């Protein structure tokens, strides 16, 4: 314990130096875990004091300056984390970032930092998603965090993704925001500050082919398609285009439906899947020749 305090002071001094991120990491790596802990501290979200917030006309300037300083600090921390990949600090940073991502109010910063570390962080992110999913008292925000991690690491998230995709979509499962393929900032308090309307869809998650029937429900079910038109066509198309060849023939089967809307939607989805939809060309040609 007596030795860790001087090491922490040394780490703090190095973090305040004017060296490049790479040079700072080279020096910090010599200090071991205390250096990793010092880097993690940079991510800590400062809360504006009530006095500053009540400073009348100065409040807006204070808040603006605070945000700029915070963003600069986060940027520096992310650069250090990125530079630490492949160094002796990597393992400690993976562990500490995952710990903080579970408990800190700005969990997104810690999660994003893990994503910046690249493929080596995928097992850590998958474990983090599983830990979030295993919570007995999951909040709506927790489901959005799982969706976010799925976009970061794709199939590596494993069966945890099942928590945010129902077996089938119907009026009940769609109205449950835990199952939405996109989310509104209104459901996530942090993002309210930034008026960020749509985020954390599943376009980059590459869900398993077992989920294809559920996504096609959003297109084939007239009630869902009309209620959530944008999500039902374009968002499903983005998701299916990342699922590989497995999605092509199930979508092509919708070209045989009686509903013109469903057939039109299927053609739109195939266009979004792109060149990989070539096996559906005969079915598409047949549908186009149908005067109905």
Multimeric status of the protein: single chain
Instruction: Give the strand tally.
Output: 0
Described by the principal axes of the CA atoms, the overall outline is elongated
Largest sheet: none
Instruction: Determine the structural class based on helices, strands and strand pairing.
Output: mainly alpha
* Residue share in β-strands: under 5%
Residue windows where pLDDT falls under 50 for at least 5 positions = 184-199
C-alpha termini separation: 79 Å
Count every helix, treating DSSP H or I runs of 4 or more residues as helices: 17
Rg of Cα set = 24 Å
Q: What is the arithmetic mean of pLDDT?
A: 81
Describe the structure.
- It contains 17 helices and no strands.
- It is mainly alpha-helical.
- The chain starts with a helix and ends with a helix.
- Mean pLDDT is 81; it is low at 184-199.
């Amino acid at each position: 314990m007596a030795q860790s305090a001087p090491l922490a002071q040394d780490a703090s001094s190095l973090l305040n130096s004017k060296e490049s991120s790479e040079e700072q990491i080279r020096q910090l790596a010599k200090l071991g875990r205390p250096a990793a802990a010092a880097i993690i501290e940079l991510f800590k979200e400062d809360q504006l004091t009530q006095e500053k917030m009540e400073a009348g006309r100065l409040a807006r300037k204070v808040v603006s300056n605070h945000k700029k300083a915070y963003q600069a600090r986060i940027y520096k921390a992310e650069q250090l984390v990125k530079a630490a990949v492949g160094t002796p600090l990597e393992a400690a940073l993976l562990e500490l970032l995952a710990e903080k991502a579970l408990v800190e109010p700005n969990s997104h910063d810690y999660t994003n930092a893990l994503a910046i570390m690249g493929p080596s962080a995928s097992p850590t992110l998958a474990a983090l998603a599983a830990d979030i999913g295993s919570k007995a008292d999951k909040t709506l925000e927790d489901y959005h965090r799982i969706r976010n991690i799925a976009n970061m690491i794709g199939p590596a998230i494993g069966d945890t993704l099942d928590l945010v995709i129902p077996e089938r979509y119907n009026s009940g499962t769609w109205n449950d925001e835990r199952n939405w393929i996109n989310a509104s900032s209104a459901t996530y308090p942090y993002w309210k500050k930034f008026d960020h309307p749509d985020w954390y869809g599943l376009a980059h998650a590459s869900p398993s082919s077992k989920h294809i029937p559920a996504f096609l429900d959003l297109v084939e079910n007239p009630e869902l398609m009309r209620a959530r038109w944008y999500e039902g066509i374009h968002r499903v198309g983005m998701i299916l285009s990342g699922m590989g060849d497995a999605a092509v023939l199930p979508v092509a089967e919708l070209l045989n439906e009686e509903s013109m809307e469903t057939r039109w939607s299927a053609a739109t989805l195939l266009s979004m899947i792109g060149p990989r939809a070539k096996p559906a060309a005969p079915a598409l040609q047949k549908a186009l020749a149908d005067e109905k």
